[in-house]
Write a structure and sequence with these properties.
mainly alpha; 3 helices
Length: 90
């Protein structure tokens, strides 16, 4: 489980039926993860599929579902993500 949130896993790419989407690092480490992202940027990525730089995430991420969750639940997801430390910092 210590590597569970580091990304690199290949998943079906719903935008391209013959392709794959590669999961991204969602640890709080700012060098490779989401540590430099604001809470609002994380929420936008989760609910709209848009990174801070404006690029779009693959539809493998179920934005439409997350867009409908309660604001308190979205806050809880962000709070949880902030606890995910990169390897070597535990």
């Amino acid at each position: 489980m210590s590597l569970a949130y580091l990304g690199g896993r290949e998943l079906p790419d719903f935008d391209n039926s013959s392709g794959v989407a590669v999961s991204r690092n969602i640890t709080a480490g700012s060098k490779h993860g989401i540590g430099d992202w604001t809470d609002a940027q994380i929420k936008r990525a989760i609910t709209d599929g848009i990174r801070p730089d404006g690029t779009h995430l693959s539809r493998t991420m179920p934005f439409a579902w997350y867009k409908r969750i309660a604001p308190a639940d979205l806050d809880a997801i962000v709070a949880f993500l902030r606890t995910l430390k990169p390897p070597g910092t535990e």
